[in-house]
Amino acid sequence: MPDDLPDDFLDADDDAGSPADAAPQLLAHTIPDEAAGQRLDKALAAGLPDLSRSRVQALLEQGCVRSDGRTITDASLRVKPGQTFEVQVPGSQAAEPLAQDIPLDVVYEDADVLVVDKPAGLVVHPAAGNPDGTLVNALLAHCGDSLSGIGGVRRPGIVHRLDKDTSGLMVVAKNDRAHHGLSDQFADRTLSRTYLALVWGVPNPTHGRIEGNIGRSSADRKKMAVVTGGGKPAGTKYRVVKSFGMAASLVECVLETGRTHQIRVHLTHIGHPLVGDPLYGRGRSGRPGGKFASLLPEPVRSSLVGFPRQALHAAALTFRHPVSGEIVAFRSSIPADIHELIVTLESA
Length: 348
Hints:
This protein is of the alpha+beta class. 19% of the residues lie in helices and 26% in strands. The chain has helices spanning 40-47, 53-61, 135-143, 176-187, 262-269, 290-293, 300-305, 336-346, and strands at 21-22, 25-30, 65-67, 70-71, 84-89, 92-93, 106-109, 113-118, 157-158, 167-173, 192-200, 207-211, 214-216, 224-226, 235-244, 248-255, 312-320, 327-331. Strand 17 and strand 18 (327-331) form a beta hairpin. The protein is globular and about 65 Å long.
C-alpha cells in the first residue's frame, strides 16, 4: 500500500477502520531538537502520527521498540535530540467480513474495477465500532463470484477510503492486478481526486495552494493538525467556486497527497473549516462557524450550524484503468443535503 492513502478520508470515529488485514511495519523516528526531554511514549506518538500514545505504550511493553541495538521498554524514558528509535508494528488480520445485501450506487463496473458513489453515513471497513453494515460488506454481496480477491482472499481491494460522513466517489479493485495498478497510481500521485466543500467564510485569496505537514494534534489526540515538527508532507489546491456573502463559500479542492483528514485540516488551518464538521468546525469562540455564523440571518444560521455532518463530497475521480490503460473519469453531483444548504444560503 502507498503511504499516502487518503482519508482526509479517515474519520476519527473510525480509527480502527483500517484494511481487513495489515502487514507488519517497521517505523523509525529521530527525535528533533524541540522534543528534547519529552517522555519516549509522547515523543514517538507525536513523531509517528499513525500510532496513538496508548498504542506506543503497548508496543513498548511488548518489546517492539529499539534504539542503538537495544530493546527499550520504558515509556517514561526522557529522550535526547538525534536519538533514533525503530518501532516494529506487528501485522494483524481481522475476521473475514460477511457479505450483506446493502444497496450500492454503482457508477461503473467491469471485471477489474468498480466505482461507487458512497453515501454519507456509510463506513468503509468493518472495525470494532462497526463490525458490519459497511461498504466492504456490501461489496462482497454485490460482487459475488466476480470477486477473485486480493492476496488470495475473496475481498474487495480498498485502495483509498472516505470518512464515514464524507460522501462521493471511490474506486475499488476486484483482483490483485487491479489492486496493484491502482495502488501504484496513488503512490505516484497520478490518480486525480477532486472534492467540493462548503466552508465557513471565504478564503482569501480565492484560489491557491495549502501546504503543511499533517500529524497528530498535540492538544487533542482525536484530531490531526498542521504541525511544525514531524507529520507527513501534504498539499491541497483549492479555488472558491461560489461565495455566499462573507459567511460561507463552496470550495473545490484537489488533493496532491492524501493524509488523514487532509482537506478538513488544511481548510481549518487557513481559517475556513467545513460546515458541519464535528471535529474541526468550531471557531475560537467554541461555537460552530464562529464569527462567520453571526453574519447569517435566522433560520439560515440554524440550518448551517445544525448540519449533521461535514459538508464534504468527493465529486470527481480520474485514473488510468489498471488493466486496459485507458484514462477514465467520473463525476458525482452534490448530494441533496449539501444542495439544500446551498439553496438556503442563496435565499439569504
